[in-house]
Design a protein that fits this description.
This protein has 183 residues and is of the alpha+beta class. Helix content is 24%, strand content 33%. It has a four-stranded mixed β-sheet, covered by helices on one side. Strands 7-8-9-10 form a four-stranded mixed β-sheet, with no helix packed on it. Strands 4-5 form a two-stranded antiparallel ribbon. The model has no long low-confidence stretch (mean pLDDT 83).
Length: 183
């Protein structure tokens, strides 16, 4: 299951996330989690305490440009989070991996900070699996969108023959549009 929290306060979304986890989903992908850098530990702890049946992995970005909220300017972080059910995965074997070494070589790794998360783990049955959570860039920046997709495609190709799950918010509208998103 995947949910773009959409910039709403993650703390306000916690009861809804709790209800989803109570349903026993195998994986829950969250995107567009926004928080202040000073709240990072609070947010991570709040997510971890939602259910003892899950392990949560958070990939956070660097603070974004200053945004104005009321009379306060605040630098926010963006993040994606992935909840893995302990009965479906050997969560102690889960490793977060770099997903786009070619972007790093090009000095473009900032494109994916807080937008893409790559996990490698093992199913309860002992099968290796990769799991990627994507929050694709929206808007008119076609080059940035394509760089992320090409880097992800390259990483997936390296894992040919291995089980994998790609989930998230693909922002599949036409460039610059906010209509006709894929469901």
């Amino acid at each position: 299951m995947t949910w773009n929290v959409g910039g709403a306060s993650i703390l306000q979304a916690l009861p809804h996330i709790q209800r989803i986890l109570d349903r026993g989903v195998t994986i829950l992908f969250l995107q567009e989690i926004k928080f202040l850098p000073t709240d990072e530990r609070i947010i991570k702890k709040a997510l971890e305490q939602l259910s003892s049946n899950y392990v949560v992995h958070v990939a956070r970005g660097r603070p974004t440009a200053e945004v104005t909220e009321g009379s306060h300017n605040k630098a926010q972080r963006w993040a994606v989070a992935t909840f893995l059910h302990r009965e479906a995965f050997k969560t102690g074997a889960t490793i977060t991996r770099a997903w786009a070494p070619e972007l790093q070589r090009q000095g473009m790794e900032h494109l994916g900070h807080g937008r893409v998360q790559w996990l490698e783990t093992v199913t309860a049955e002992g099968k290796a699996i990769w799991i990627a959570n994507l929050h694709q860039i929206a808007g008119n920046d076609l080059q940035a969108r394509q760089r992320i997709l090409l880097a992800l495609q390259s990483r997936i190709a390296e894992k040919a023959g291995q089980l994998g799950i790609l989930g998230g918010d693909f922002n599949a509208a036409e460039l610059g549009g906010r209509a006709n998103f894929a469901a």
